[in-house]
Design brief:
- The protein is an alpha/beta fold.
- Helix content is 36%, strand content 15%.
- It has helices at 14-18, 31-45, 58-71, 94-100, 102-110, 127-143, 157-168; strands spanning 3-9, 51-54, 75-77, 150-155, 186-191, 199-205.
Length: 217
Amino acid sequence: MTRTLILLRHGQTAWNAEGRAQGHTDVPLDEVGRAQAAAAAPVIAALAPVFIRSSDLARAAETADSLAVACGLRVARDPRLREYDVGERAGLTIPEFAAAFPDAHARWAAAGGSFENADSVAGAESTSDVLARMLPALRSASSDLAPGETGVVVGHGAALRVALLALLGWDASASANLRTLDNCGWATVDDSAPGDGVRLAAYNRVAPDFTSAGSVG
């Protein structure tokens, strides 16, 4: 029997809609995000998860709380599941970032212009920093499942993407070919036994009628 882990991105925030980098800034869900979370909750609850673990940032915590009500579970908050810290880019759209910090923006753009290249920005986390906290959190969640059980981790777009690639053992360069999860989109990974390796069973599933292209945290 397989152990299944669902990796759920939080619902939309006003900053997602405006294209603002969020990072560790504690931005709550907006009205659309709350509706997305409410729509996803019964779909995921039908999979009978045995636990819900969440980033402690408000947008993920609120999404997890909506799911918890549907599942009859309590949420365990884990700061290791936070988004990339984006440093001085926090709160800015890309044009605002370019205007306020032209040198930092030029370095960031030259490095690829993604969260995975965020360490070119002052105060930002590198991908290795993010993986150093995300991977132990995800591996712990997976190992805490018994065969046949399902668990849910609620997190953030960029951090979940790089951690998923690492968990699967895929080359980091594959990040360019894997779109960020939509708001309240989820990926499903499973394994049949410890040591057998993790498999990607589904990617970017969403509740009906809710999709979002927002990809900044």
